[in-house]
């Protein structure tokens, strides 16, 4: 199909048009919950996922000793109530997050736990039949609920069985890359490209839910799967939606070879020994004499934070990654002699996972580096229903911004996916029933098709896209990891500028066969720039954001969110002051 409109022509062909009431973009916990809730509300729902269903993203692959979903149901301690969950979460990010969203999370997640139980999810239980609940960071009482050590995966599988019962089509290997709006800035559709067949698909729909995860794979090492490159952030940004709190990224240690395994807080209670490639003990090298190394181990949690002595743990690793790295760019980790009992007590699951990957932790040294795990920022949502300034666009899960700030309490991530996935699914279905499918999506997608056609036609160079992506990951890893400063961040920005200039100048090899990769690189550059600019703007150190040149927390100037938005084709920076609680006046945007 060739489109003509207002005298313009493009030979870029849309291979297939699909109509649906609600398009869910993503395949993790939030996306699955959204798809199920929209289907239960009576909508015709379709899911587009960049990878394979149940095989990509964070939810499908997440693992740690502490992985769980937080809900104040009072099974471990009857004093725990949603009001306390609310206060605990707000205390972890007060001034950086929307209290209304936090209250929705805390007050509604008990119902979502019950939903999961109703569809057959078998949470770990006590002898009296109540759920087992564990402590997590920032929690007053034990609050996290688990399922056999791989909670996230079990949640996703349980939801997928229900989605199958509703006959919801799932388009695998389909990257949605452009949201289509009408002249009134209402969603009318979305363009996508299939990774394997290269076909271009136009979804005609009045409701789109972006729940396509984060962007931690703009870094060299990250958990999850490589498809998490910030597509949702980039698409929202292109429509003028603010990206907020993007400088706050959860990063911490993980085993990196033969594959990445996150190493959570309990692992470090066994006091593994970390050495560089020269055989030097890196904690002895960098921890000041007045701080006991045992205290560094004791305080170590995932992710990195400047708030405790564990600061030296992650910063020591990054320094040695640059000075004396192991063959794969890490440090060597070995378990201390006679640690078998404490390993079994503190990290049995991690030990088993590493063993399945060929690592005997009692005999082998294995490589550890810093890995990106979760984006605390995201595309700003305007209400608990995941609404945005664009009518018909809803956002949930890690793609959404406004409910996570400098810190994210343990167990809240899975909780967010269930609460806001459910709400966006219902809201998107209600919007679709009212709005109906807009018949003008074909002509409104013309601009994007012309751009793709020009991108290919004007590409005369010999630069390789995959190499560019790998270099970007290296640059972000070196310059915007846990140690940040003006020079590092400027280096990252310069590299981003150069890659964007090369793309605009046609210096890459781009054709229909690698168009998927070209679009991915473009989205990675938008997301990387947002992160670096936010980190550069925040001239203080706070929680997971450490500015080596501004090492102190500055409460007098920086208890506020930084956001970036597109205006007149340029990335602009602003700040947002949030109310202290949900009874206060709504937040105020300043520039």
TrEMBL record:
Per the record, the domain of life is: Bacteria
Q: Which PANTHER family has this protein been placed in? A: SUCCINATE DEHYDROGENASE 2 FLAVOPROTEIN SUBUNIT (PTHR11632), SUCCINATE DEHYDROGENASE [UBIQUINONE] FLAVOPROTEIN SUBUNIT, MITOCHONDRIAL (PTHR11632:SF51)
What UniProt keywords apply to this chain's record, in alphabetical order?
Answer: Flavoprotein, Oxidoreductase
Give the Pfam families listed for this entry. FAD_binding_2, Succ_DH_flav_C
Q: Which organism is it from?
A: Peribacillus cavernae
InterPro entries according to UniProt: FAD-dep_OxRdtase_2_FAD-bd, FAD/NAD-bd_sf, Fum_R/Succ_DH_flav-like_C_sf, Fum_Rdtase/Succ_DH_flav-like_C, SdhA/FrdA/AprA, Succ_DH/fumarate_Rdtase_cat_sf
What phylogenetic lineage does the species belong to? Bacteria, Bacillati, Bacillota, Bacilli, Bacillales
- Does this entry carry the keyword Transcription regulation? no
Indicate the segments forming the Fumarate reductase/succinate dehydrogenase flavoprotein-like C-terminal domain, all copies: 471-575
Name all FAD-dependent oxidoreductase 2 FAD-binding domain ranges: 21-414
Q: What is this protein called?
A: FAD-binding protein
User: What would you give as a GO molecular function for this chain, any one?
Assistant: steroid dehydrogenase activity, acting on the CH-CH group of donors
Q: Does the keyword Aminoacyl-tRNA synthetase apply?
A: no
């Amino acid at each position: 199909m060739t489109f003509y409109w207002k005298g313009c022509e493009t030979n870029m062909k849309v291979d297939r048009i699909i109509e649906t009431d609600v398009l869910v973009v993503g395949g993790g916990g939030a996306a699955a919950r959204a798809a199920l809730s929209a289907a239960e509300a009576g909508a015709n729902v379709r899911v587009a996922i960049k990878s394979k269903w149940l095989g990509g993203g964070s939810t499908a692959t997440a693992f740690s000793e502490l992985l769980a979903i937080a809900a104040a149901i009072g099974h471990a301690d009857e004093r725990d109530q949603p009001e306390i969950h609310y206060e605990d979460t707000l205390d972890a990010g007060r001034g950086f997050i929307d209290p209304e969203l936090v209250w929705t999370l805390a007050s509604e997640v008990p119902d979502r736990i019950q939903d999961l139980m109703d569809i057959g999810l078998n949470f770990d239980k006590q002898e009296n039949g109540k759920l087992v609940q564990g402590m997590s960071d920032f929690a007053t009482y034990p609050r996290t609920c688990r399922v056999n050590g791989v909670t996230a995966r079990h949640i996703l599988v349980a939801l997928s069985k229900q989605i199958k019962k509703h006959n919801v089509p799932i388009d695998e290997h389909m990257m949605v890359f452009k949201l289509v709006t009408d002249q009134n800035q209402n969603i009318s559709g979305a363009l996508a490209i299939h990774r394997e067949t290269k076909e271009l698909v136009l979804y005609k729909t009045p409701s789109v839910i972006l729940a396509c995860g984060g962007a931690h794979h703009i870094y060299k090492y990250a958990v999850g799967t490589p498809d998490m490159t910030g597509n949702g952030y980039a698409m929202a940004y292109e429509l003028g939606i603010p990206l907020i709190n993007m400088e706050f990224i959860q990063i911490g240690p993980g085993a990196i070879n033969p594959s990445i395994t996150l190493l959570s807080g309990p692992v470090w209670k066994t006091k593994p020994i970390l050495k560089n490639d020269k055989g030097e003990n890196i904690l002895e090298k960098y921890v000041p004499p007045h701080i006991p190394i045992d205290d560094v181990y004791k305080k170590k949690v995932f992710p990195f934070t400047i708030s405790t002595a564990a600061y030296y743990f992650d910063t020591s690793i990054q320094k040695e990654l640059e000075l004396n790295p192991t063959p794969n760019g890490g440090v060597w980790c070995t378990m201390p002699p006679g640690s078998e009992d404490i390993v079994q007590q503190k990290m049995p699951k991690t030990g088993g996972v590493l063993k399945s990957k060929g690592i005997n932790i009692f005999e082998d040294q294995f490589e550890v580096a810093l890995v990106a795990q979760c984006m605390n920022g995201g595309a700003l949502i305007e209400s608990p229903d995941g609404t945005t300034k664009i009518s018909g666009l809803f956002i949930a899960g890690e793609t959404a911004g406004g409910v996570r700030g400098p810190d994210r309490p343990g167990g809240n991530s899975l909780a967010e996916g269930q609460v806001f996935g459910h709400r966006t699914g219902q809201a998107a279905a209600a919007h679709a029933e009212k709005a109906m499918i807009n018949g003008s999506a074909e002509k409104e997608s013309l601009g994007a098709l012309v751009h793709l056609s020009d991108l290919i036609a004007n590409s005369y160079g010999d630069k390789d896209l995959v190499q560019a992506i790998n270099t970007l990951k290296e640059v972000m890893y070196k310059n915007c990891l846990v140690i940040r400063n003006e020079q590092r961040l400027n280096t990252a920005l310069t590299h981003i500028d150069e890659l964007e200039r090369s793309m605009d100048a046609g210096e890459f090899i781009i054709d229909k066969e690698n168009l998927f990769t070209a679009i991915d690189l473009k989205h990675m550059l938008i997301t990387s720039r947002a992160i670096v600019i936010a980190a550069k703007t925040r001239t203080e150190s706070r929680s997971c954001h450490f500015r080596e040149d501004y090492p102190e927390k500055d409460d007098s100037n920086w208890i506020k969110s930084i956001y970036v938005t597109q205006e007149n084709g340029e990335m602009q920076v602003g700040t947002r002051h949030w109310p202290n609680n949900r009874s206060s006046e709504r937040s105020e945007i300043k520039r």
